[in-house]
Write a sequence for this structure.
C-alpha cells in the first residue's frame, strides 16, 4: 500500500473540508451549543443555589386541625411551592400545566385519619390531580406529602383534642371487644398510659407541643466522583455525548458525499489510477479520523475553558478514547458509503441509525431509565462505550485502566465497520 497516494488523498479531503468556512464553523459551533444546553440541564443544582420547587396546590376541604397542620408543613417544605385553590381552579391549573399536582384533602379527612391511626377504621382517600407528562415529580410529591401527613396526624393524635377524644372513645370499645384477654390487657394499658399523658398538668413554662411521628433518621449524601473535593460536572458528560453524536453525523455526511461522487462517475476515474480499494478506503478513513479528532478536541477545549471540565483520570487514556471514537466515526462513514444505494436513501436510514445509537448510548438521557433488558442491549452500541470512556477519564477520575476496555471495543467496532466497507464497497452505480 503506497503512502504517497494516501497522503495526497488525505490532503485533498482536508482542503475540501476547510474550503467551506460555513460548514467548518457549523461543525464546531453546533455540538458546542447543544452540549452546553444539555450540560446546563443535567449538571444538577449548585450547593449555593436554591433548588427548583415543584408547583403544588392544596385544596383543603376539611379545615380540621390535622388538615391545617398538613398545609402549614407543606408550605414550609423547601422542595414544594404551595398555593391554595379550590378544586375546580386546581384541576384547571393542572390541565394548563401551571402546577404539577393538586392535593385535595376531602371533608372529614382529619377525623377519619385519626380514627384509622389507632384502630382499623376506614382510611380516608387523599385526592391527587396530576400532570401525566411529569410522573417523576408526582412520585416525589407523593413521598413528601406522606411525611407531612404522618407527622400532622400523629401530632394531633398524641397531643391534640382529637387524640384525647379518640382515646376516651377507644377505651370502652376495647373493653367490649372479643379479642384475647392478654392482647386486650396490653392494649388497655397502652391506651391508659396515653390518656395519662394527655391529662398530665404541663410544667410551668412548658409550651412545647407534641412533635408527632417524624422521620427516624437523617440522610448524609456524598457524591462519589474523582475525589472528595471534585464536584460532578454535567458538562463533561454532555460534551462527550453531543460531540460523539455530531461526529457520527459529520462522518455519515462524508459517506453520503462519497455516494454522490460515485453517482457522478468520479470513482471511475479514480479507479483508473493505480490505486487499490484498500488504499482509497484507508485514505478516506485517515482523513475522517483527523477531522473527527479536531472537532472533538475543539469541543472539549471549549468545555475546559468555559465550563471547567477537567481530565481527572488519565490524559493518555483520554487521548486513547478520543482516537477510538474518531476512528469508529470515520469507519462508520465508510460503512454508509459501502452499504448505501443512493444518497437520498442512505441519508434517511443513517439519520435514524445514528439517533438510535446516541439515544441507547446514554448521550441524551441516563441509561438507568431504560428497562433492564435494554440496558444490557446497549452494550453492543459503540456510543455507550464511548460515553462511558469519556466519563471515566473526566469526572469519574478513573486511571488508564478505565480507558483500556472502551478504547479496545471502539477500535473493534472500527475494524468491523472497515471490513464490511471493504467487502461491500462498489466503484460504480448498480
Amino acid at each position: 500500500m503506497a503512502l504517497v497516494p494516501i497522503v495526497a488523498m488525505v490532503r485533498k479531503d482536508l482542503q475540501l473540508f476547510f474550503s467551506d468556512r460555513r460548514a467548518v464553523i457549523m461543525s464546531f459551533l453546533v455540538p458546542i451549543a447543544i452540549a452546553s444546553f444539555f450540560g446546563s440541564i443535567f449538571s444538577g443544582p449548585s450547593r449555593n443555589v436554591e433548588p427548583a420547587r415543584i408547583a403544588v396546590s392544596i385544596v383543603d376541604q376539611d379545615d380540621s386541625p390535622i388538615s391545617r397542620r398538613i398545609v402549614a408543613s407543606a408550605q414550609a417544605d423547601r422542595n414544594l411551592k404551595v398555593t391554595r385553590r379550590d378544586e375546580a381552579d386546581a384541576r384547571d391549573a393542572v390541565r394548563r400545566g401551571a402546577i404539577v399536582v393538586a392535593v385535595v384533602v376531602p371533608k372529614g379527612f382529619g377525623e377519619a385519619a385519626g380514627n384509622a391511626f389507632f384502630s382499623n377504621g376506614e382510611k380516608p382517600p387523599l385526592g391527587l390531580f396530576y400532570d401525566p407528562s411529569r410522573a417523576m415529580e408526582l412520585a416525589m410529591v407523593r413521598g413528601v406529602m406522606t411525611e407531612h401527613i404522618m407527622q400532622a396526624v400523629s401530632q394531633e393524635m398524641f397531643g391534640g383534642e382529637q387524640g384525647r377524644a379518640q382515646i376516651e372513645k377507644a377505651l370502652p370499645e376495647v373493653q367490649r371487644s372479643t379479642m384475647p384477654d392478654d392482647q386486650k390487657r396490653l392494649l388497655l394499658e397502652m391506651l391508659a398510659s396515653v390518656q395519662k399523658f394527655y391529662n398530665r398538668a404541663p410544667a410551668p413554662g412548658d409550651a412545647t407541643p407534641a412533635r408527632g411521628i417524624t422521620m427516624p433518621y437523617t440522610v448524609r449524601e456524598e457524591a462519589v466522583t474523582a475525589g472528595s473535593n471534585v464536584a460532578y460536572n454535567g458538562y463533561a458528560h454532555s460534551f462527550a455525548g453531543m460531540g460523539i453524536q455530531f461526529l457520527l453525523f459529520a462522518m455519515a455526511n462524508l459517506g453520503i458525499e462519497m455516494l454522490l461522487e460515485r453517482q457522478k462517475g468520479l470513482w471511475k476515474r479514480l479507479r483508473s489510477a493505480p490505486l487499490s480499494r484498500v488504499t482509497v478506503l484507508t485514505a478516506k478513513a485517515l482523513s475522517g479520523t483527523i477531522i473527527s479528532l479536531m472537532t472533538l478536541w475543539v469541543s472539549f477545549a471549549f468545555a475546559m475553558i468555559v465550563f471547567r471540565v477537567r481530565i481527572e483520570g488519565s490524559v493518555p487514556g483520554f487521548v486513547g478514547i478520543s482516537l477510538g471514537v474518531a476512528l469508529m466515526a470515520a469507519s462508520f462513514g465508510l460503512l454508509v458509503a459501502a452499504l448505501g444505494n443512493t444518497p437520498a436513501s442512505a441519508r434517511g436510514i443513517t439519520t435514524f441509525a445514528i439517533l438510535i445509537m446516541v439515544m441507547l448510548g446514554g448521550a441524551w438521557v441516563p441509561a438507568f431509565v431504560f428497562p433492564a433488558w435494554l440496558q444490557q442491549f446497549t452494550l453492543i452500541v459503540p456510543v455507550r462505550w464511548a460515553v462511558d470512556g469519556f466519563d471515566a477519564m473526566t469526572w469519574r477520575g478513573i486511571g488508564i485502566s478505565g480507558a483500556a476496555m472502551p478504547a479496545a471495543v471502539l477500535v473493534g467496532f472500527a475494524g468491523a465497520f472497515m471490513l464490511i466497507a471493504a467487502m461491500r464497497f462498489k466503484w460504480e452505480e448498480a
